[in-house]
Specification:
The protein is of the alpha+beta class. The longest helix has 18 residues. The relative contact order is 0.25. 22% of the residues lie in helices and 30% in strands. A three-stranded mixed sheet has the order 2-1-6, covered by helices on one side. The termini are far apart.
Length: 134
């Protein structure tokens, strides 16, 4: 299978969620969608952007700009209380599976506290003109 299938599935869910939320408002068009993706999701920005462009056609999102922000990975050690960046994120093996992270300070197990997000931060819209009732 092609490398971008995961991104298409994720973007499809994101678009569905945004469109569902937009039903609550009187929106004429969407200008921007701000998305944050964590370093440990291993989602490709180019693949997400391409999927957004294709999947948004024929919806209120068509023609809007997808703006992607990034969340760096952070770990917390259960033993020595180290909190910060994990080691060896750029090792090729990590790009195909989720790594077992160890504390860069003491080598024990850690909890991943940041870097696993994939969320819509905001949506910039143009509201439709609503006639004033009087």
């Amino acid at each position: 299978m092609e490398n971008g299938m995961h991104e298409v599935s994720v973007m499809s869910s994101i678009i569905e969620s945004v469109l569902e939320e937009l039903k609550k408002y009187n929106v004429e068009k969407v200008e921007e969608v701000h998305l944050t993706i964590g370093e440990m999701t291993f989602l490709g920005e180019d693949q997400l952007s391409f999927a957004f462009e294709i999947l948004s056609k024929g919806t209120l999102l068509e023609g809007s700009q997808l703006i992607i922000g990034h969340e760096d990975a952070e770990v917390k050690c259960r033993s020595c209380q180290y909190q910060g960046a994990p080691d060896r994120l750029d090792d090729e093996i990590y790009h195909s599976s989720m790594p077992t992270l160890n504390c860069p300070k003491c080598g024990r197990g850690v909890e991943l506290t940041k870097g696993k997000s994939c969320l819509v931060r905001s949506v910039k819209v143009v509201e439709a003109d609503v006639p004033v009732q009087g």
